[in-house]
Amino acid sequence: MALILIVEDEFFIRQAAEWAVQDLGHSTLAACDLGEALKHLSASPAIDALFVDMRLNELAVGGYEVANQAVALRPNLRVLYTSGTPLTSNITDRFVPGGQFIQKPYSADQLSKSMERLLN
After folding, report:
1. Distances in whole angstroms, Cα of residue 35 to Cα of each of 30, 97, 111
2. Taking the domains of the chain in order of start, what are their residue ranges?
3. Is residue 66 a contact partner of residue 34, using CB atoms and an 8 Å limit?
4. Residues 68, 56: contact at Cβ < 8 Å?
5. Disulfide check for 104: which of 27, 69, 84, 100 has CB 3.0–4.6 Å away?
6. Alpha-carbon span 91 to 42, nearest angstrom
7. Which residues touch 102 (CB under 8 Å, ≥6 apart)?
C-alpha cells in the first residue's frame, strides 16, 4: 500500500495514529517535530503522504510549516491535516494545495475513509 509519514508531538496520539494507519495496511514513519519529519523526507524517497497535527508544540504554526516544507521538498506529496480544533475557512486557507482534514478524535472508519480519499 502506501508509506505514510505521521507527525504528531504527543507520543500516545502518535503511536495510536501509527497503529491505526498500519491496521489499514499502510507502512508508517513517525516524527515528533519538524526536524525529524525533514530527516525522514530526506532519507526515504518512497513517502506517499504526510499525516500531520496542525498544532505542534514546537512551532507556532505547527503542522502548516511541516506541510509547507515537506511539499517544497516533495511537490507531489499528499497531506492530511488533523486537529482537535474545528475546521474553519481561516484554517483551510493555510493548507497546501490539495490538503485534506480529519477532525480529532477520529474513528478507525473515519481515518480509513480519509486515507482512501487522500491516496486516490
Report:
1. 12, 22, 25
2. 3-119
3. yes
4. no
5. 84
6. 27
7. 80, 81, 82, 110, 111, 114
C-alpha distances out from residue 39 to 36, 66, 95, Å: 5, 12, 22
* pLDDT one-digit tens code per residue, 43-86: 988 999 999 998 877 555 588 999 999 999 999 999 999 998 88
33, 78 Cβ separation under 8 angstroms: no
**12-46 per-position pLDDT tens digit:** 999 999 999 999 999 999 999 889 999 999 998 89
Which runs of consecutive H residues, i.e. helices, occur in 1-105?
A: 11-23, 34-43, 63-73, 89-92
Query: Which residues lie below 8 Å from residue 74, measured CB to CB, with a gap of 6+?
Result: 41, 47
- The pLDDT of residue 58 is 56
- From the list 112, 31, 104, the residue with the least C-alpha distance to 70 is 31
Residue 113 is inside which H or E element, if any? Answer: helix 108-119
